[in-house]
Amino acid sequence: MRTSENSADLVAAEDVLLFANAAITATGQREFRSGALDQQLSLDFLHTYVRVNYRRLYAASLALDINDHNAARIVLGLLATAGEASAEERRTEGWLIAARLARLPPQRVYRLFGEVRRAGINNRRTRAIMRDWLAARPDLGHDAVKYRSGVKTAARHVHLRCPQGAEPLAEVGAFLFRPGKLPRYEHPLLDAWRRAHYEQGAVAELPFTVAEGFAARHGMKREVFLKRAAPRMTRLERLRTHAVTQRPDVDLAAMPLTRLALYVLALPFEQRAARRTELTGALRTAARRAAGKHAGSWGRVHAVLDDSFSSSGSGQKRRRPLAVALACHHLLEVLAAPGAYRGLWTSGRGDALLVRPWGPTPLGMRVLDALEPGPGGAEPDRLVIVSDGWDNAPAGLAGEVLRVWRARLDPGRRTAVVHVNPVYDADGFDVRRLAAGVPTAGIRDAEDLPALVEIARFAEGRTGAAELHAYLDRRVALFLGEKATENETEKGAVA
After folding, report:
1. DSSP assignment string, 411-470
2. First to last CA, the chain
3. Is a pLDDT exceeding 50 seen at residue 493?
4. What pLDDT was estimated at residue 494?
5. Contacts of 165 (CB under 8 A, 6+ apart)
6. What is the pLDDT of residues 12-29, one digit of tens each?
7. What local confidence, expressed as pLDDT, does residue 481 receive?
8. Phi, psi dihedrals of residue 208, rounded to the nearest 5°
9. CA distances from 90 to 59, 86, 413 (A)
10. Among 43-52, 401-410, 457-466, the range of highest mean pLDDT
């Protein structure tokens, strides 16, 4: 009996780890080796399987570093099947859902609310969650202008009360459901939207994505419009339009590390070389910020970084795997002890700033190089492999090298090995692994690397299901505790 219980716990732990890898990496979009439909069908199966068999763990995954696409799918699945949960489970799920919605981008939440309405999910708990989220928005008038259809759908679904009069909510209600009835609005953005229909000067007062449509309607030149709209742009909007505006106030170092790596890789080689000091400095600053308290704590670190042709990604995720590798390269340099980092690209290229997707994936040869002692004859404390796992030059060499090295040369595990994979394998319902004994974790953003290394140790087989469940419980407690702290801070600020 004890053996069967242990086996069941082990299977449950493996299933949860498999789902966590998928929820971190997969977005239902086309990858280099699989189409969007394959990705979507694979995700559909995993979400249904884990929700039905491990509902508590399915909800707990909202506290992990999963991507926004899967977080929204989990919320939708939990709301749609509330009748399958106990009262205690529904209470915990409500807290987790509220905390996760507070972290999601607003456009993603409004899209989720649209899916909730189309699915006909209209129970009391769902309406309460939606009303609470709308009530917590800092400026619903801004949302009504920027995400008009989303706000309108959500307001209808929860029967949001929009009283008559001059109250802010009354103006939002009139803007959404009775456009053109009021001669003017007290809310500056609502009135700017009204004036932008006939007044070109009001266009620059609107959020950038809304202003673009009005600028095209008025026939404004792109360069003139971008310069006028720049003060109201978000950081990412400034980054996307930097090549046109050339504004000096675009702080590249303030961008998230992986997003910055994507920007760098989108630049031509000539621009990368000409702006080497600026771009390298920004990447290193972003990496130091991402490392935080972990900086310098990983000892001697050697890395194998995949810049083979498959790292070009797909039309929907252009250069995403290569950007993750480039971001990890700079982050690992900060995580390692000073002067104790060595990064090896599969192409053999030595200039990280000029990497490009090219050639086969000789992971085995690079792993052999990475396992060589560093300066002073010291072995690495950690070997980190960032790759999609398609070792093909020759095929399977990396897994065999790691197996023999672990069994014959390092049975005491002096060197910790981890493989992080930025690509979801739809056929295998997981990220592709190099070898059975090598812990593998999915990764979407390099900033999550320290947390993912902790998750990966559970996949190595040296820890049991109890440790995994305890880890998830700690993450949930921390996740909900952070949300409670944020709420208390907001209340104190209001008081």
Report:
1. TT--SEEEEEE-SEETTTTEE--S-TTS-EEE-S-GGGHHHHHHHHGGGGTSS-HHHHHH
2. 58
3. no
4. 29
5. none
6. 778 888 999 999 999 999
7. 84
8. -55, -45
9. 10, 6, 43
10. 43-52
- Tens digit of pLDDT for each residue in 46-102? 999 999 999 999 999 999 999 999 999 999 999 999 999 999 999 999 999 999 999
Token output for 133: 């989220």
Give a three-class secondary structure readout of 108-152.
HHHHHHHHHHHCCCCCHHHHHHHHHHHHHCCCHHHHHHHCHHHHH
Distance CA 451, CA 275 (A): 32
Separation between Cα atoms, residue 72 and residue 60, nearest integer Å: 14
pLDDT bin (cut points 50, 70, 90) of residue 406 is confident
**Residues sharing a CB contact under 8 Å with residue 140, sequence separation 6 or more, in sequence order:** 134, 151, 168, 169, 172
Rounded Cα distance between 129 and 133, Å, is 6
Assigned token pair, 279? 């771009």
DSSP H/E element including 301: strand 301-305
pTM: 0.88
- Give 218-269 pLDDT, tens digit per residue: 999 888 888 888 888 888 888 777 655 555 556 788 889 999 999 999 999 9
Give residue 492's pLDDT: 39
Q: Of 338, 306, 330, whose CA–CA distance to 419 is shortest?
A: 306
